[in-house]
Amino acid sequence: MKLLSIRLHPFGGTANRTCTLGDGINVLEGPNEFGKSTLSNALWHVLFTPTNLTPANLRNTMGRWYPKPGGDHTRASLQFHADGQIWTLQKTWGAGATSSLQAEGAAGIADAGKVQEQLITLLRRNEATWRHVLFTGQAQLAATMEQLRASSGKIDEVQSLLAGAAAIPGDIPPEKLTAALEDRITHHFGRWDIGSHGPERGRGIDNPWANGVGPLLAAWYAAERIRRKLHEVIDHEKAVDDINTKIHSITDDMGTDEDFVRTGRTLRDGLGKRSGLEERCQRLAGELRLLKDIMVAWPGAAQVIQGKETELTGVAKDLESTEAELKNARKRIQAEQMRVAHGLLAKAKEEWQRTAAHLAESKAVAPELLNELKRLEKEIDRLRINIAAQKLTAKLEIASSLTVKLQRGTGEPEILSLTPSEVWENQAEGIFRLEYQDLKLSVESGTGDVNALFTDLETARQRHAEILLTLGHESLAAAQLADTDHQKRLAEESTQKGLYRAALQGRSEEEWSVDMAALADLPETRSVEVLEGEKTRLLGRKAELDHDIREERKKIDQWTRDHLDLDSLTDKILTQTAEANLAKQELAGLPDLPEGFATIPAYLDLLGKKETAREERDQQLKELKIEQGRLTGAAPANTAEELRADLEIKQREFERQQATGQALLRIQAKLQVVIADRGIDDPMQGLATAVSSHFNKLTDGRYRDVTLDGTTPVRVGGTLALDTALLSQGTLGSLALATRLALSELYLKGMDGFFLLDDPFTDMDSTRRAAAIQAIGSFAANHQVLFFTCHPEHAGELQEKAGGRNLQVTG
Amino acid sequence: MSLRILHTADNHIGLSFNQYPEAARERLIDERFAALERLVATANERAAHFFVVAGDLFDKTTVTKAQIERAVKLLGKFEGEAVLVLAGNHDFCEGPDSKLWKSFRSSAEGSRVLALTEPGTKDFESDDYKVRFYASPCPSKHGKEHMIGWVAGEDKPPDTLHIGIAHGNVEGLGLDADQRYFNMADSDFRNAGLHTWLLGHIHVPAPAPGTTGKPLYFMPGIHTPDSVKCSHPGHAWWIELEPDGTCRHEQLTTGAIRFVRMTLALHHADDIRDLKTKCESLDAPNTILDLQLTGRLREEEVAELNAMLGDLRPRFLDFSRDQDIASVLDAATISKRFPEGTLPGTFLDALLEDEAHPGDANLALDLIESLQKS
């Protein structure tokens, strides 16, 4: 935007004045009250202050520019060049407020809001940029110098002022903003553990943090304290409710039992009496019934005894005949048994006689002969073995045939026919004898007396044959067989004989014959079982009759002892009857046993228990009332309803603090992102170079480099490298102007715009002013500059050294 | 001739109102009595036969003797047959030795004021009416079972009006999710077999105005507001019952103080003007005003709001506000205050992009401003 003209009609003390502006430096020089500030403000407001302000805002913002006295509006018009067009802007504030903006040859805009929107577009930079950078008011640079001078020696203050003067107004170094945010978060979350969502180290309201408590925890403590109180009150109310419930329950129980106990107490004596009387009535009734029974029974007792005695006699007779029949019945059973035994006896005798005859048919073998025979056979075998042990081998060879007698051992002699063609060879036991004609050849074994053996053998054989002959048997085996058979027959005979004797059962055969003859005379009877049953029945009946008779006699004795006679008994019955009637009458006047009880003792027992329970409840009630009194005395000052309302407020505050905390954390995260992004594409890049360039010119080459911290110059370099805190006041002023120029170049780069300076050289010496004029002149080569001053020499120097021209003012 | 009853409940005498400044507190405490006294006067003007307090005449069982005496004294001004005061759940009667009710009876001795602290009937008869009241008081602050079960089994003579008096929640009318407040259902009332019930406990009146016929029960609501939760001006019932139970009823408005909570979101100057209009329409000297303001306004609008509220404040009986109003912060505002490329400007612009948290930018601006001031 390049300004062409501005008209104030009216504005402040100016009724109607137009200023025409051109390229380069436009100088407005005049004494104070000339209208420089009015023009500066008119320019500002026509560009940035809308006309649709609220009354209060209008009054505060534009009221001072109403013509005095009595003005109700103010107005300014501006003509400028922007976006290749010439624009006419007019604004009226106050009465008849209007806004209009129109490009040459185009339709105008009359809506205040839209006019402002279009202006912002045409201005290209935001309002703050214009306010803080491009409009350098009278106080901003000059006052900065004053403040710098006033703060000489106070490093921190100088730094601060320097920052305010030299940095982009309104900017804040990232570190500072980050630190401030962290401080705020630290403060907000003071003693609060974000992770556990509660106080650090779990220090709740029982052990609260005293120091460093942030608003969040403070709000939490406040809410929790109320919550604690509320719980205490609720607990108290519950305790009171519980006690009251118990008291009511006991009171109700007592009410229920009270009726029972009260009624019971009125009934107790009557029921006690009733209990005794009922018992007495029952007893009297029983006694009377007994006496009446006696009265009935006594006269018939003798007849009863007589009848029973008659029956007893008959029973005794029956019993006697039954026993006789039973005896015969048992004899008949015995006779049958004897008949069987007798049969067995006859059979045993017959068998014995048969075995005796069989024994007689056999001959006994003399045992000594049999034993000798056994011995001889063993001796013969032994001798034959000894002879056989002395064996001889003979071999006969002859020249011509002949017949010889040959005996080998104990064998029989044998006749051999020998031939020359064959050799006879054979063996013999102990001895070998050959006889041929006159020749007798005997060859004996040479180891013993073979002949003696042969002799003993022969002797034994002869005795063996003699014994067999004696016994009449052919061999020892036959003799032994005969002996065995004989022994067997002998044993059978002996056995049958024993059986026969056993069958006699100690009696002789004659005795058996007599008894058997007697059995034929026994009479016929019923069975033993039937007779024994009959006998038992008769015995039982007899015993009963005996007992009855005895008892009847006892009764009569007892009645006689007790009542003397029937007359006396009648008197007694009459007396007892009267007594029973009296008791019944008395009983009728006594209370009845309440329903639901079987007996009076059961009722009185329950009454006693209820009276005991009532006493216990009384005691419980006393204790509960003491507790109730204690609770009532300890009643909290506030009700639960009041505390709930309070808690609601505290909880809301806590939630608000929570929301603030979350917002702070979000803001922190966003700040980190913004700072990181700025690092990549810093719009302020080149600012330090530009500041350095201007500062170099303004200090005539003494300083070349300016180091920025954020947007704040902190160090300068050149012939001397110094922290800005150590710069002289004049040099600091030059640095401030250098920074302003650099910023303006930055913001107006590539666009039309203007830079307004209101008396910037007020406190500069001529050397610095000359350098400043030169710098401004260089700046004005590319940008329109509005330079207001009340110093004619400053205006002159600008015109002379930097090509400045005075504003054309009309009206 | 009809039976005339003035029915109130939940007067909560003894509420401490500790959260209010002294002047307002005294007025609020006094209003509990004053409203009751106005009710007695109305009852006398209309020649009521009975003045029934269906529970919670007192806010707690620990009210002071002076409060009891004052309440009894003003109830004693009733000129009808009797004042029937039922023990509610706040002023429950735990038994014959109840300190509150002993003190009450002592104060009421010789007057028409009767305490109904035990379940039972009260018969009254005159040439005009024959009525039996069935009192079902509360024995404790909380109770899972209602106290009216016994009524169904009572004899009910045919030529008599039968009216129950009870205290507790009514299903469908009040919220008692845990069933802790002697919860009663319509079926319980029907089973009782009475002409109607005079109830207390719920602070909102029932039946709805305009209801005709024979209401099953009446709930008067609190007689004068006690907090911002009470949105009505305080009520009582005027009830006329014919011998056959036919009923005519009228809702009386009895409170002289209002609690008004305005929860408003302010977004422009018109909202401020609306708020002002609303506030000026209130009966300020008798109003406890609680403003819950949220929204976003321009700085000058915030100033205007604060100035307006500053003017209003002293007019009200009590005035409180919970204000969460952020200054409108938009890109234009930021651009006015922070040159392009500055960290605050960039930072605030970035925060404005988070539309879900519009207050974040304001919070950040507050931080930036505090930094600039320091």
How would you characterize this protein structure?
- The complex is a heterodimer of chains A (811) and B (374).
- Chain A is an alpha+beta fold.
- Chain A is built from 21 helices and 22 strands.
- In chain A, α8 (215-297) packs antiparallel against α17 (640-680) and α18 (687-698) packs across α19.
- The radius of gyration of chain A is 83 Å and the shape is elongated.
- Residues 145-166 of chain A have low confidence and may be disordered.
- Chain B is α/β, with parallel strands linked by helices.
- In chain B, the strands form 3 sheets. Chain B has a 6-stranded mixed β-sheet with strand order 4-3-2-1-10-11. A 5-stranded mixed β-sheet of chain B has the order 5-6-7-8-9, with no helix packed on it. Chain B has a 3-stranded parallel β-sheet with strand order 12-13-14.
- The model of chain B has no long low-confidence stretch (mean pLDDT 92).
- The longest helix of chain B is centred in the first third of the chain and has 24 residues, at 22-45.
- In chain B, α7 (331-337) runs antiparallel to α8 (343-352) and α8 packs antiparallel against α9.
- The radius of gyration of chain B is 27 Å and the shape is elongated.
- Chain B has helices at 22-45, 65-75, 99-108, 186-192, 269-280, 299-312, 331-337, 343-352, 359-373; strands at 3-8, 50-53, 82-86, 113-116, 120-125, 130-136, 161-167, 196-200, 217-218, 235-241, 247-253, 258-266, 287-297, 318-327.
- The chains are: A alpha+beta (811), B alpha/beta (374).
- At the A-B interface, α4, α7, α8, α16 and α17 of A face α6, α7, α8 and α9 of B.
